[in-house]
Design brief:
The chain is built from 8 helices and 5 strands. With 231 residues, it is of the alpha+beta class. GO terms for molecular function: kinase activity; RNA binding.
Length: 231
């Protein structure tokens, strides 16, 4: 990696890290990552992120233009393509010229029709239910090299960390919300039926088991009945 690009990458990664420290959505972080990839990788004319869940559900995020989203949809439609392959299997896939690409004939032809001649896809991460890829596309053949792969891998790692941190935060927020609802519902039952904390919780659990509904949802129903009665 040449010295100027190394310096630029270090500066941009520091900026991304500082920006991520503030409360931000996943979309905002990924938009910074794709914009940075476009800035630091000369061949990248357009950049996007593809997340693929089990069962074929997918999200196309943070495109620097509409084209990455269109290409993602085509890949999922055809069931082939570099972004899907990277998201689910490979770590890095580079296509030097889609006009002679034989691995994904239908997708390659569709890319060429849209004036995309080369691409670089880098795995974000593979979690239990979701896989992802950072995808860069160029209107020129042979637009990407090994140095671009390194920069892409560093940016992909940053994006992966942001996604995982956000989802852990969402899970924590959800758990805290559930705990609060259960506590509130227990208080309502204690007041309504004149029982103690332990008995109120047992009643909630029994309702949950009998109706095959999550405990937090049962708690919400109890809270809603009280609010309804108070209106």
């Amino acid at each position: 990696m040449t010295q100027p690009r190394t310096h630029d990458l270090a500066e941009r990664m520091a900026e991304l890290a500082r920006a991520s420290a503030a409360p931000r959505t996943v979309d905002e972080v990924l938009e910074d990552v794709t914009a940075t990839a476009k800035e630091l990788i000369p061949g990248a004319d357009t950049v996007g992120v593809l997340l693929v869940a089990r069962g074929g559900k997918f999200e196309s995020l943070a495109g620097t233009s509409d084209l990455p989203h269109e290409l993602d949809e085509l890949q999922m439609q055809f069931g082939e393509g570099p972004c899907v392959q990277v998201a689910l299997n490979e770590s890095i896939v580079r296509t030097d010229d889609f006009r002679s690409e034989e691995r994904w004939p239908r997708y390659a032809a569709a890319a060429v029709e849209r004036d995309i001649l080369s691409g670089l896809s880098v795995k974000l991460y593979t979690a239990e239910r979701t896989a992802g890829a950072l995808n860069m596309f160029s209107t020129k053949p042979h637009a990407f090299d090994a140095e671009d792969e390194t920069i892409g891998a560093i940016l992909a790692a940053h994006a992966a960390a942001a996604i995982l941190a956000s989802r852990e935060g969402e899970q924590l927020k959800s758990a805290m919300s559930s705990r609060d609802r259960i506590g509130q519902a227990k208080g309502i039952i204690m007041e309504r039926y004149g029982v103690d904390d332990v008995r109120a919780f047992e009643m909630l659990k029994q309702l949950s088991q009998d109706s095959n509904v999550k405990l937090a949802d049962i708690a919400q129903r109890v809270i809603s009945t009280r609010h309804g009665a108070g209106q």
